[in-house]
User: Which sequence fits this backbone?
């Protein structure tokens, strides 16, 4: 069974990818065409994660700058980016509902 997750990186639009059961954060990042650099970290739904952590339907994966001196500023930026991705997903769902209603 397949499901979709969103993957985002700062200054880049979020990308939706379709994955199969058992997929990992690393699989989602690779399928979205991104990589995690040596000074970047992956977050799933706003929390730190590893590339081997499993992903589930609706998860939001964000690749953010790693902590190097001013962790709080970078954490705030990653959280803001994660909120933007969630808002985009919410808006997409609303548009789909409206399209479904108008086609009846």
Assistant:
């Amino acid at each position: 069974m397949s499901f979709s997750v969103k993957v985002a990186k700062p200054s880049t639009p979020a990308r939706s990818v379709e994955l199969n059961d058992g997929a990992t954060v690393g699989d989602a990042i690779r399928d979205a065409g991104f990589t995690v650099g040596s000074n970047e970290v992956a977050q799933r739904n706003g929390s730190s994660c590893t590339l081997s952590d499993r992903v589930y339907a609706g998860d939001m994966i964000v690749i953010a700058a790693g902590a190097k001196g001013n962790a709080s500023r970078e954490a705030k930026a990653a959280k803001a980016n994660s909120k933007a991705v969630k808002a985009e997903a919410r808006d997409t769902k609303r548009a789909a509902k409206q399209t479904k209603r108008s086609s009846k």
Summary: The chain has a mean pLDDT of 83. The chain has one domain: 2-102.
